[in-house]
Design goal:
Radius of gyration: 23 Å
Largest sheet: 4 strands, mixed
Helix content: 25-40%
Strand content: 15-25%
Structural class: alpha/beta
Number of domains: 2
Order of helices and strands: HEEHEHEHEHEE
Distance between the termini: 46 Å
Shape: elongated
Length: 173
């Protein structure tokens, strides 16, 4: 038996691999909890709030993503969150209103929602699942839902070991 050249059949196939980890935003993440600026943890006093924001060290958020929220069960006026965003704007690259645990989901949803899915039309696509950075399950679900209408087939995992999710039948349009 003659030994021939090793051929990577995956690399030479028409399989398109998507790695959601590539979309993970590695910029530093910061949290700004308005609860720490409330009187007795419940009430926003405008004059004191504005003064505290003026004295706050905004430069600590430089170059990062600021997650703005209120952990207290308090009624905080919308303008207060807007004021924080305005103050942080010159320092943070991005300011988002969400709970810290929801930030990844929000960022991934935006990326997936803005994907040009035309490049996936009629293609065999595999969505890679293993990653070093956290990719929320919601990102995988959103990606599958977004791609299914246009792809020929959709799989999850690695090319050598994948889970088939969807395959368009010849009669499907």
């Amino acid at each position: 038996m003659e030994q021939g050249e090793i051929v990577n059949r995956v690399a030479s196939s028409d399989l398109l691999q998507i790695n959601p980890e590539d979309w993970y935003d590695t910029r530093p993440r910061y949290e700004f909890d308005v609860a720490g600026f409330l009187f007795q943890g419940l009430v926003l006093r405008e004059i004191e709030f504005r003064q505290a924001l003026k004295e706050h060290n905004w430069s600590q958020y430089s170059g990062g993503i600021l997650c703005l929220h209120c952990s207290a069960d308090a009624i905080v006026p919308t303008w207060a969150f807007m004021l924080v965003a305005v103050q942080a704007g010159p320092f943070a690259v991005q300011v988002e209103f969400c709970r810290p645990e929801d930030l990844d989901q929000l960022l991934f949803d935006r990326i997936i929602g803005s994907l040009d899915i035309n490049e996936f039309t009629g293609r065999k696509v595999i969505i890679k699942g293993c990653s070093r950075h956290p990719v929320p399950v919601s990102a995988f679900v959103a990606l599958a839902a977004r791609l299914q209408p246009v792809v020929q087939s959709l799989m999850f995992g690695e090319p050598c070991s994948n889970v088939p999710l969807f395959k368009r039948k010849k009669t499907d349009a």
